[in-house]
Amino acid sequence: MTLNARRIWILNRLLQADSYIPLAEIIREWEITRSTVYRDIKEISDWLESNSLQPVCYIRKHGFCLETNEKIFIKEKVSRIALNPDYHRSARERLAWIGILLLTREEPIFLANLMEKLRVSRSTILRDVEKLKARLARHRLNLQLEKDEGYHIIGLEQDKRRSLVHFLARIHPNKESHWLNSELQSEIEKNWSNELFASPEAAAVHRILFESEKYLNIHYPDDMIEILSIHLLFLLKRYRQGKMMDIDPMEKVILKPAAEYQAAQFIGKQIEEEFKLIIPDDELCYISVCLMGAKTEEYCPSSAGEAELDLLKNIIEKMVSDFEEDFHLAFHDREVLERSLYFHLKSAYYRIIYGLEFENPLAETIISNYSDLFRETKKVIHHLELAICKKVPDEEVALITMHFGGWIERPSA
Length: 413
Fold this sequence. Notes:
By secondary structure, the chain is mainly α. It has 21 helices and 4 strands.
C-alpha cells in the first residue's frame, strides 16, 4: 500500500503535533471536503495497520492524533516511503512553488508553463496567481505579466530573498523528508520539483555546509543542514543571474567579527572552487545571516532593508518624544539629535537582531550614577523592543542612556 503526497503531509503533521489536529485545519490547508479528509485518514490508518501500528485516533471535539509511543516507529517508516505519482499539491504548496519558480526562473514563465508543471486547470492557476499577488504585496513585491517576459516579480533583492525563504518553508513542511539524502534519491519520483532538489549540485552544497560547521564549533541537526542546503542551492541560481544583495556598511561591520562570517568565507571559497562562481563580500555577509538564522527554532534569516531602517527612524522619533514629555524638556536641534541617535542605535539594532553580545565596561557605572536617565531610557526603549520582538540588553540601554545624557547637558545655541 502507498500513500500520496497529501496523505503523507497529513501523516507528518500528525507526527509533529503535540496534541490533536482539528478537522477544520486540514480542510482549510488543502481546500478539500470533510469526506475527503475522512477518506484520507482511513487510508492512513490502513497503511499504519499494515505496518503493525495503531490507526489514527479521532475525537469529534478535538480532531485527529497518533499514538505518542509509536511516533518514532512511524517516522522511520515514513522516511522510506517513495512518493506516489498521485501527487496533489495543496493550495499553499502551489502558491509556494509558483513563487519559487518565478524567483529562480532562468527563462520566461507563462500561464501554460505553470499549468503543465502543477497539473491543474487554467482557472485554478489564475486563482493561485491572484493569491500570490496579495502574498507578495506583504513582502513589498509586485507580480507582473508581460507579453514577452511572462510572469516576473519586481522589487528589492532583500525582499525577494525573504519571500524565497518564506516559500521554501512551505514546500518543506516536515523535517523528516531528507530530500538531499543520496541514499533515498533513487527512491524518489523523478519529476521537475524533485530534480530541483536532487540536482548534481545538491550533494556538493550539502557537503560544503557540513564542512563549514567546524568554523562555528556547532553541529546542525540533519533537517537544518537540509534547509540550509536547499536555500543555498536556490541562491546559486540567483548568483548566476547576477542577482546580488547590497548589505548596509554598518551591518557588515557588525557581522564580520562573528564566527558565522568566517564560516561564510569558507563556504564562499568552496563555492568558487566547485562552481566557478565568485561570491562578493555582501553575499558572504548574507550567508552569515543565514547561518545565524539556523540557530533559531524557526529558520527565518533576514538582513535589514530600507523598510526596517525607516522603521528604526520612526522608533527614534517616538523615543525622543517620550523622553521630552517625561522630563518636561525640549531638545535643542532635535533633528540633529535624531540623526545622531539613528547612527548610534543602528549598530545596536544589528547586534540585537543577530544575537551578538556587546560588552560595555561602563554599564554598571552608568546604571548606578545616572539611575534616573537609565530608567527613562529603559522605558522609551520599549518602542524598539516592540518592533523587533526582542529584549534590549542593559549594556545596550546604558550606552543609549549616555547618548541622551550628553544631549541634555548640551547648551543651547
